[in-house]
Amino acid sequence: MLNLIFNIIINPIYNDVPEPLQLGFQDGASPGYSGIVDLHDSIFFYLVLICVGVFWVLGSVMLNFSAKNNPITYKYTTHGTLIELIWTITPALILIAIAFPSFKLLYMLDEVISPAMTVKVAGNQWYWSYEYSDFIKEDGDAISFDSYMIPESDLEVGQFRLLDVDNRVVVPVDTHIRFIVTGTDVIHDFAVPALGLKIDAVPGRLNQTSVIIKRVGTFYGQCSEICGTYHGFMPCVVQGVEAENFLVWLDQV
Ligand SMILES: *[C@@H]1O[C@H](CO)[C@@H](O)[C@H](O)[C@H]1NC(C)=O
Ligand SMILES: [Cu+2]
After folding, report:
1. What architecture (CATH level 2) is domain 31-110?
2. Hey, which CATH number is domain 117-252, 2.60.40.1180, 2.60.40.420, 1.20.210.10, 3.30.70.990?
3. Which of 78, 112, 203, 230 would disulfide-bridge 183, Cβ 3.0–4.6 Å?
4. What pTM does this model have?
5. Which ligand 1 atom minimizes the distance to the CA of 209?
6. Which residues line ligand 1 (CB under 6 A)?
7. Cβ(208)–Cβ(240) under 8 Å?
8. What is the pLDDT of residue 3?
């Protein structure tokens, strides 16, 4: 809600970027992201429960058993089987209640269900390169390009500092897209919060993840594995467009 108000007052153009002083999440644009937010919310419930419980017990001990309120100590009260059982079994049950939805989501996000197209992503020091192996140009090579951050001196009005790139990964919305991610030098991490994407780009290995983008938009992320001096200057920008516009883009690229 706060983000929404922020957006309307300060930044009327709708963009999926982090905002100054942001406390909440970005607006999601994929089912995976909704899953992550829902898991966060349900775990937060236990967090509040545990915090209230712990601080309540701690507070009442400090109040009721202080030297002033309780001058004579219970020297011979050293244990109580019932309460010890309760405070051992309850946390165990809470951990199980957290673990179940957590693993469920983890394995669901890991699943790549018959993708309609594949984008290869390679992390380099310090830029990303993308390849659309499903689309071959006239010369027989697949469509591919590098994506560099736009330096501060070249920013145009409306572009985001440290976030915008010269070439965005354009993909169609409402389509199962697979990203195959690797690194060419050191470990990078391809991450786009609003799409629930975060996957290591490891040299010599291929990692895969998939996404289905639910609305048109430009989604900004940053490399999320410390990879050297310019780690902070290799953002990942995914642009979700309608299928027709994707074809138009393919024609131009
Ligand atoms: C990607 O690959 C690395 C190494 O092979 C692995 O540690 C990591 O868990 C994989 N998955 C993701 C989501 O990063
Ligand atoms: Cu990095």
Report:
1. Orthogonal Bundle (1.10)
2. 2.60.40.420
3. 203
4. 0.82
5. 13
6. 199-200, 202, 205, 207
7. no
8. 53
